[in-house]
Amino acid sequence: MNSATLRAFARAATATALLSAVTACTDTSPASPRATPSSARSQTRTAEAHTAPSDRNTAMDIQVTLDGRPVDATLNDSPAARDFAGLLPLTLDLKHFHQTERIADLPRRLTTSGAPEPAAAKAGDLAYYAPWGNLALFYREGPSASADLLILGHIDADTDQLAGADRITIESTP
C-alpha cells in the first residue's frame, strides 16, 4: 500500500471508532431528552402524547408549604415535572405577575423535551414558563394555551391563599 492509501485507511478507521463511541454513549430511548435532536424539539413538543388536564394530579404527591401553611399538591408525569422534582427541595420567594400568577426564578432551566400539548393554566396550577425559565403558580385562569407554558402539577389551595403567597417551599414526599 502506498502512503496516501494508508492515510485514507487511518482516517476512515478513526472516524469509525469515533462514530462508534458517540453512538455507544448516546441514549436514544424515547424518555431521554437527548433522543430528540435540538432542531426538532420545538416541533416535537406539540406532536407528542397529550397529558389531559384531568391527568395533571395523578403522578407524584409533593409537600408544598405556602407562607408556612402546608397544602396538598401533586406533580404530573411529564418530563418537565420529573426534571423539576429533581430540583427538590426548593424554597422560593414569589412575586406577583400579570394579576394572574405568582412567579419565582428556578435555579436552572427545565427540560422541555416531550412536553404535552399546550393547555391553558387554571387556578392552582404549578407551571414552568420556558422562555424565562421560571416557575408560575396561578391563582386565576391563565392566558390561552401556549407551547411555552408547561403545566407541572396542581396545588389544592384557595385562590386567596395562592394570590397572597410570598414564599413557597416544595419538597418530595417521604
Q: Taking Cα atoms only, what radius of gyration do you get, to the nearest Å? A: 21 Å
SSE string, helix = H, strand = E?
HHEEHEEEEEEHE
Tell me the overall shape: globular
**Proportion in β-strands:** 25-35%
Strand line-up in the sheet with most strands = 3-9-1-2-8-6-7-5-4
How far apart are the first and last residues' alpha carbons, in Å?
Answer: 67 Å
Count the strands?
Answer: 9
Helix percent reads 10-25%
Q: What's the total helix number?
A: 4
Main β-sheet: number of strands, strand sense, barrel status?
9 strands, antiparallel
Return residue spans where pLDDT drops below 50 for at least 5 consecutive residues. 3-57
Chain-averaged pLDDT: 76
Secondary-structure-derived class: alpha+beta
Describe the structure.
- With 174 residues, the chain is α+β, with helices and mostly antiparallel strands.
- Helices cover 25% and strands 29% of the residues.
- The chain is built from four helices and nine strands.
- It has a nine-stranded antiparallel beta sheet.
- The longest helix has 23 residues, at 3-25.
